Amino acid sequence: MSRSNRANRSSQVPASSGSRSSNRANVSAGVVSGTTGNPAIVVYANRALPSDRIDVAYATYIMPGLIMLTVISTGFFNTGFVMMFEKSYTDAFEALVQTPVTVHEICLAKLVSGTIKSMVNGGVSLLVVAIFIDVTLSWTWLLLLPIFAVCGFFFSCIGLLMGTYLKRGYELGTWGNVLTFPLTFFGGLFFAVSQIPADLQVAVQANPVTWMITSMREVTVYGGWGIGWEMLALVVACFPLYLLTTLLFKRLVID
To answer: CB neighbours of 74 closer than 8 A, spacing ≥ 6?
Structure first.
């Protein structure tokens, strides 16, 4: 995409009715998510039992979910916004097309970058939180490294996917919040998933964030291994997600 094309496109001041409708939808989604999200969390979390184990303090119980939220947000928003900036405001992809690299290599480099940043942010957050919360450090905490890597890669794929498809930065912020709010709310961050109504249990158990938080809580709170079927399922889910990301990337950016 050349600079002249971007200049011509940006000089078209009047917006179509379809564009105005899309903008209104994005703004409406952001308002609904922002005004109902946090109050809903507070109300429901106060009504639900925080944990299935009375010997675990509430601050200790939610600690893995808060750190996992940092990992998720870093992978998603960092990869997505970088992708959107390079696509819209630089000639990075024109230069990449002229180099002897494949689409898979370009995507993989961006995803690895997002994964490493997620791991670093998750590790730093964990060390800081461990100072203020009563947790028992163990060598099994080393298992958090592959857990952070898988979770960071998973949401880096989603961030790159949305950053490739969406056209404006505020759209990524809006739909990113709309996506992450229900996943984390029903992922066992603030209360045990067993407290969620039975009608929603199928969706809760199929929620990848539930798998992530459950695995991390098993390691940091309960002293387990944390590498169960949840992590294996997440690793398997990364493959089709990665292929979908590279396919859309090639169609909308490279071609």
So the answer is: 114, 117, 118, 121, 122, 152
> Nearest CA to 185 among 173, 196, 198?
196
Q: Is 118 exposed, middle or buried (0-12, 13-18, 19+ CB in 10 A)?
A: buried
Domain residue spans in the chain?
67-254
How is residue 204 written in tokens?
A: 């809760």
DSSP of 99-110: SS--HHHHHHHH
Q: Which of 141-145, 165-169, 219-223 has the lowest mean pLDDT?
A: 165-169
- What is the predicted pLDDT for the residue at 50? 55
Contacts (Cβ under 8 Å, ≥6 apart) of 121: 70, 71, 74
- Name the least confident of 52-66, 76-90, 112-126: 52-66
Structure tokens at 8: 């011509």
CA distance 3 to 6: 5
